[in-house]
């Protein structure tokens, strides 16, 4: 184990994860809102935002899928040391992290069952840009809001499956935004 | 601060609750199962709300707790001091100064803002439970949107009483999909559930369920075209502050049948009295507190 594996976690886990969670919750409750999140220094190619989300929400109970270029020995070792989360394939993952292209196809992930729609994956999508783009409406949004999305049809299809579906967290640097399954996209 | 972890719960428990809150926000009105923990207070004293509050609090928060609208009752005081000790957060009784408000059975009179979070203590999260006791069946009814039974119950109210007699825990439909129990708030508060600027989180400790309403969510109280929903309250004004628009408690004040109607929201009532409003029972009334 090297310093990169052992370092880069929360230095004050209870407090930093509380603050980080509030950012994630704010983003999920108000789709399109861009929030700051910090605390983690994960190995490349993970962004600090994605690393902070993983530290805040993942542990031994949550299988994580590392999509293509995020699946490095450094990332695996860092995730294992700081969260204990088992690395798995997309069909068993509760969380998945990677770029949009690497995470596709969306049909590979769990979307929940009609009796337990919460048993569905949350995708952490590494993005270049969060602001602008598509128009969002639905729960959590007063009139409309905007978010830069890598695709439209995929999110419209996801919305049509409500209450089943996937939830997305978009991360870029030290910022994040979210798109739950309840949001209409156009 | 004490030797407890920040906000009492261990980190793994908080992560589990936080994941449930996020799924709850993504599926408004759906009850997410969670592994409720033993808390240092009995079930029925707000263990669900306390666990949700523990999972969302940060050191920067200002925390307020109300019990039926009041800041100064046993349940509210003990939960407030619990988080003062275990999370070291600031506490307040001022609705507008609070960032996280835990509530038992009321929504504050003062409209909440975007930077606030309202955490409800929920005894029975399943709105269909008294109509169908089996969890396996109610879960199926939710998945199939089979809510006819709830309308039958409201109809039976009408046939027996002439109007919908359900006065608290009045069922609502969220975004046209899930029927949800708003916790035992008076139906007077139901219109505030929808389109609220704040995030609303519901925690049921004994029943192990968390559910949520994101801000600006469509929430409709169930009713019939010829018997529309009506948010009712006692047809009185507050004896202490004279408010005509707030939800009133009826308080027995002596052993001769004397009674007083006063605001159930103590902070709202105090704010009005400080602003110079006076109710007819105020002068020389020893009950006024």
How is this structure best summarized?
Chain A is α/β, with parallel strands linked by helices. Chain A is built from 6 helices and 9 strands; from the N terminus they run ααβαβαβαβββαβββ.
Q: Roughly what fraction of the amino acids of chain B lie in strands?
A: 15-25%
Largest sheet of chain A: 6 strands, mixed
How would you classify the helix and strand content of chain B by structural class? alpha/beta
Poorly predicted spans of chain B: none
Query: pLDDT below 50 for ≥5 consecutive residues: which ranges of chain A?
Result: none
Distance between the termini of chain A: 47 Å
Q: Taking strands numbered 1, 2, ... along the chain, how are they ordered across the largest sheet of chain A?
A: 1-8-7-4-3-2
Shape of chain A: globular
Kindly provide the radius of gyration of chain B, computed on alpha-carbon positions and rounded to a whole number of angstroms. Answer: 19 Å
Describe the structure.
Chain A is α/β, with parallel strands linked by helices. Helices cover 28% and strands 19% of the residues of chain A. Chain A is built from 6 helices and 9 strands, in the order H-H-E-H-E-H-E-H-E-E-E-H-E-E-E. In chain A, helix 5 links the parallel strand 3 (95-99) and strand 4. In chain A, helix 2 crosses helix 3 (48-57). The termini of chain A are far apart. The model of chain A has no long low-confidence stretch (mean pLDDT 96). With 289 residues, chain B is α/β, with parallel strands linked by helices. Chain B is built from 7 helices and 12 strands. In chain B, 26% of the residues lie in helices and 17% in strands. Chain B has a 7-stranded mixed beta sheet. Chain B has a 3-stranded antiparallel beta sheet with strand order 7-6-10. In chain B, helix 1 (11-26) crosses helix 2 (47-56). Chain B has helices spanning 11-26, 47-56, 74-86, 135-143, 148-161, 190-193, 266-274, and strands at residues 32-33, 62-67, 90-91, 100-104, 117-121, 172-174, 178-180, 199-204, 209-213, 219-221, 248-252, 259-263. Chain B is globular. In chain B, strand 11 (248-252) and strand 12 (259-263) form a beta hairpin. The A-B interface holds A 13-15, 17-19, 21-22, 24-26, 28-30, 56-59, 61-62, 94, 113-118, 120, 122, 138-142, 162-163, 167, 180-182 and B 5-7, 11-12, 14-16, 18-28, 30, 32-33, 55-60, 139-140, 142-144, 175, 177-178, 199, 212-218.
């Amino acid at each position: 184990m090297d310093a990169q594996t052992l370092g880069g976690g929360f230095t004050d886990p209870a407090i930093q994860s509380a603050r980080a969670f509030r950012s994630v919750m704010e983003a999920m409750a108000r789709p399109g809102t861009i929030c700051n999140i910090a605390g983690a220094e994960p190995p490349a190619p993970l962004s600090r935002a994605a690393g902070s989300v993983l530290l805040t929400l993942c542990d031994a109970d949550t299988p994580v899928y590392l999509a293509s270029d995020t699946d490095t020995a450094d990332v695996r070792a860092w995730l294992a040391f700081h969260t204990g989360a088992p690395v798995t394939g997309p069909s068993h993952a509760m969380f998945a992290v990677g770029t949009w292209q690497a995470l596709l196809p969306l049909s590979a992930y769990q979307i929940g069952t009609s009796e337990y729609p919460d048993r569905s994956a949350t995708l952490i999508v590494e993005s270049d840009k969060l602001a602008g783009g598509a128009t969002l409406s639905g729960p959590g949004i007063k009139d409309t809001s905007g978010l830069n999305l890598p695709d439209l049809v995929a999110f419209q299809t996801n919305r049509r499956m409500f209450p089943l579906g996937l939830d997305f967290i978009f991360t870029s640097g030290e910022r994040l935004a979210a798109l739950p399954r309840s949001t209409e996209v156009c | 601060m004490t030797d407890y972890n920040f906000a009492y719960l261990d980190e793994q428990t908080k992560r589990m609750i936080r994941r449930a809150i996020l799924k709850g926000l993504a599926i408004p009105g759906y009850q997410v199962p969670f592994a409720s923990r033993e808390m240092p207070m009995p079930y029925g004293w707000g263990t669900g709300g306390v666990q949700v509050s523990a999972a969302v609090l940060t050191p920067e928060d200002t925390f307020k707790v109300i019990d039926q609208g009041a800041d100064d009752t046993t349940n509210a005081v003990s939960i407030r001091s619990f988080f003062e000790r275990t999370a070291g957060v600031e506490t307040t009784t001022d609705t507008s100064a609070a960032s996280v408000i835990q509530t038992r059975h009321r929504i504050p009179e003062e409209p909440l803002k975007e930077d606030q979070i309202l955490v409800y203590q929920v005894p029975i999260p399943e709105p269909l439970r008294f109509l169908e006791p089996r969890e396996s069946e109610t879960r199926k009814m939710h998945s199939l949107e089979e809510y006819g039974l709830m309308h039958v119950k409201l109809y039976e109210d009408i046939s027996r009483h002439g109007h919908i007699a359900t006065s608290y825990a009045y069922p609502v439909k969220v975004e046209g999909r899930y029927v949800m129990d708003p916790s035992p708030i008076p139906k007077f508060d139901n219109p505030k559930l929808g389109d609220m600027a704040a995030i609303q989180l519901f925690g049921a400790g004994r029943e192990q369920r968390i559910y949520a309403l994101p801000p600006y969510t469509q929430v409709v109280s169930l009713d019939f075209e010829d018997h529309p929903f009506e948010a009712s309250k006692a047809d009185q004004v507050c004896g202490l502050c004279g408010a005509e628009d707030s939800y009133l408690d009826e308080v027995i004040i002596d052993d001769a049948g004397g009674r007083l109607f006063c605001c159930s929201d103590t902070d709202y009532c105090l704010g009005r009295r400080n602003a110079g409003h006076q109710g007819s029972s105020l002068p020389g009334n020893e009950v006024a507190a």
